[in-house]
Specification:
Helices cover 29% and strands 26% of the residues. The chain is of the alpha/beta class. It has a seven-stranded mixed beta sheet with strand order 10-9-8-11-12-13-14, sandwiched between helices. The chain is globular and about 60 Å long.
């Protein structure tokens, strides 16, 4: 069935790529991806890909610019090797916050990255929970955006959490939090926040909704430096919640994030493996779910010409 499919991985997250291949029961393609001493990246595809349906699995993970260049050069190598179709599987799309011109004389970097991936030779993109959905429109090729929020909801659905309220840390995440709240039969609360200029710090201002005496579950698309999350936790505790948990699709954990989360009163943090988590970014309170089956089924759908959207029809 998969005779004409090939799956390759850069250096960003080979473990996820292997898990996807195990789910699909196909081998991971052989390639060399490394940097010379002058930091120039070299790629060699070690098997025939002529007219094959090729998937390149590469989240734009840390170091972000290196992983991005690996992805672009792999796509170019596959195109020059006459691959039939190239799908860039990008579980985490970096630069997603740079999606609009909200200050004078700044770039829209997410659009630039989309152009670079297209020009390199990708025919389509498969990704998970973009920071802003309008980024899909930056591409001139088809984009399939999967969502891992239902998986987060299913995890907590199987747990016993009394008197739960689901909290969106800002208005942008209200829809995702509401959907998880519906799955858990829990009400929704929203935190109004303010972010000033380019400072990587968010100020939580007030809570819209009733949280007093409840257990709170904060739902977000990513945890980066942890400032938004820890500010939300402090505000919730000030307003009488009895305990706080958090769920996010992408665990970036940059800068002081791990120290902040370690020292915070958060009881549990649930993320997915869209990004690799080295030992120094692992805490006992962090639980990681895998998106390998989700991505594997989407790859299967793309390869066989089926609807990717049908994967989420049962979740509304």
């Amino acid at each position: 069935m998969f005779r004409e499919m090939s799956i390759f991985s850069g250096n960003a997250h080979p473990e996820l790529a292997l898990n996807i291949c195990r789910h699909l029961e196909v081998p991971l393609g052989e390639c060399e991806v490394f940097a010379f001493s002058n930091e120039n990246i070299f790629v060699r595809i070690c098997e025939n890909v002529r007219e094959r349906d090729v998937f390149v699995i590469q989240p734009i993970a840390s170091p972000v610019n290196t992983r991005l260049m690996e992805l672009l050069i792999m796509i170019d190598a596959l195109r020059r090797a006459s691959a039939g179709r190239i799908t860039a599987v990008i579980p985490y799309f970096a630069y997603g916050r740079s999606d609009k011109k909200d200050q004078p004389r700044i770039p829209i970097t997410a659009r630039l990255i989309a152009d670079m991936i297209t020009i390199a030779g990708a025919d389509r993109v498969l990704t998970v929970d973009l920071h802003a959905s309008q980024i899909q429109g930056f591409f001139r090729i088809p984009v399939d955006e999967l969502t891992a929020f239902p998986s987060l909801g299913e995890y907590f659905k199987g747990k016993d959490h009394d008197n739960l309220v689901v909290v969106a840390p800002d208005l942008a995440r209200a829809k995702d939090a509401r959907n998880i709240g519906a799955k858990l039969d829990a009400p929704l609360a929203i935190i109004e926040k303010r972010r000033t200029g380019n400072i990587q710090h968010a100020e939580a201002l007030q809570i819209i909704g009733d949280v007093e005496g409840r257990n709170a579950l904060i739902v977000d698309d990513e945890i980066d430096r942890g400032s938004t999350l820890t500010a939300a936790v402090a505000l919730l505790l000030e307003n009488g919640v009895t305990g706080v948990m958090a769920a996010a699709v992408h665990g970036c954990f940059s800068g002081p994030a791990i120290e902040r989360l370690r020292d915070s009163p958060l009881q549990q943090i649930v993320i997915t493996d869209t990004l690799p988590q080295p030992p120094e970014k692992q805490l006992d309170k962090i639980h990681c779910l895998t998106v390998a089956p989700l991505l594997g089924e989407a790859i299967r759908c793309i390869h066989t010409g089926q609807s990717v959207g049908a994967l989420f029809q049962t979740d509304g």
